[in-house]
Amino acid sequence: MNRSIGDTAARVFSSQFYSAIGFGKSVPVAFEQARNALMLEGIPESSTPVLYLREGVEADDLILVKPREKLRSAL
Fold first, then answer.
1. What is the tens place of the pLDDT at every residue in 28-60?
2. How far, in Å, CA of 72 to CA of 66, rounded?
């Protein structure tokens, strides 16, 4: 966060972010979905969260959870 964020904004952002991660979205996609959730809820803090990626890191490779179908096909 680039500054303090309210409790409601924090709850909306984190619930959407971790939900998207759990469904196999990449970190950047989950981050954007979470920011969009703030906008959809009319929370004016949608510009507060900031995602920084180290130079050379491929954003699409930042997937923390693979959905079951992808796991089965990999076996």
1. 999 999 999 999 999 999 889 999 888 888 877
2. 10
Q: Which two tokens stand for residue 69?
A: 């179908």
What are the CA-CA distances from residue 62 to residues 9, 11, 42, 50, 51 (Å)? 24, 23, 28, 16, 12
Q: How many CB atoms lie within 10 A of CB 26?
A: 17
Range of the domain at 42: 7-74
How many structural domains comprise the chain?
1
Instruction: Confirm whether 1 is domain-assigned.
Output: no
Q: Is residue 29 assigned to a domain? A: yes
Tokens of 37: 């959730």
The pLDDT assigned to 72 comes to: 55
Query: Is 2 within a domain?
Result: no
